[in-house]
Amino acid sequence: MAxxxxxxxxxxxxxxxxxxxxxxxxxxxxWEMASATRKAxxxxxxxxxxxxxxxxxxxxxxxxxxxxxxxESGLIYLVVKNIGRTVxxxxxxxxxPALQSSGPNRRLDEVxxxxxxxxxxxxxxxxxxxxDSAAAYFGKKELPLKYDVEIRYFGGIESKQRSINQPLDxxxxxxxxxxxxxxxxxxxxxxxxxxxxxxxIKNATKDIAATxxxxxxxxxxxxxxxxxxxxxxxxxxYLIAKLNEFxxxxxxxxxxxxxxGIVFGKLQAQILIIGExxxxxxxxxxxxxxxxxxxxxxxxAGKIRELGQTEFYADGGSSLNKFNEIGDSIIVDIHDFKxxxx
Length: 342
Prior knowledge:
alpha+beta, Immunoglobulin-like, four-stranded antiparallel sheet, three-stranded antiparallel sheet, rod-shaped
């Protein structure tokens, strides 16, 4: 049966339409497959980048800076530490404002690692320097309580320069008291002190034994503080020696520490000893000592003991100023006593 030309054209048209439809479907599916492949490649590339970044962060150095105020001495330290897992190289620090101290002779811009940086910092390595005493620093209102420090360094899987900005805040420490905790180091120090004192006692005993064999010659006015000869001249000589000892301790030994606003426990211990010795002298007085002299020296000894027992707090420098005022007033009293009893 022959198909006429019109029917053939119609069939051909529908075949072409179907072919076009299948072609369009093929192109769409091919495009979707290509898109899915591209997305999968992008996801894989992103995953690789994230894995590399994660690995870099896990193994990279991480340098921080902070103020260490948790010390029993009441001092402020600047600490720079690498808490990361690899070496940090060419560490540089920039403080805004410039790091400052209350002491006129304490220039922090001359500290090597602050000015020139640190060439290399292994993991857990730290560097620290004394900034100031808490009492002296908080006692000067013009000193800043907040700093911003920019820390720059190289290191890690990607050997690129890393930079962090970190705030340093001292305001939270203002007004806090410092408790002197005892630890194993203190125990070791005390044992070593006992050993030294034992050797000193042993040596002193040998010297005394040798002296007794050759006769006793007393050349030190402090040697027999509690064994005074019953006359006014010797008693006054011993007393003046103790007052001179305190004056030298305050005006010479304490001078440099005072400029930096630092008070050491050893200084207070020496002050307490002098006060106790003056009280011992007064307890061994003789009957012909004028009451006025005895009263004035007892008042001086009481102020010296008060000075030795002063406690220090981060109170804006009030406790440190009180300590210095008491010491200066004692010097005035000693000078007045010497003039009156020259």
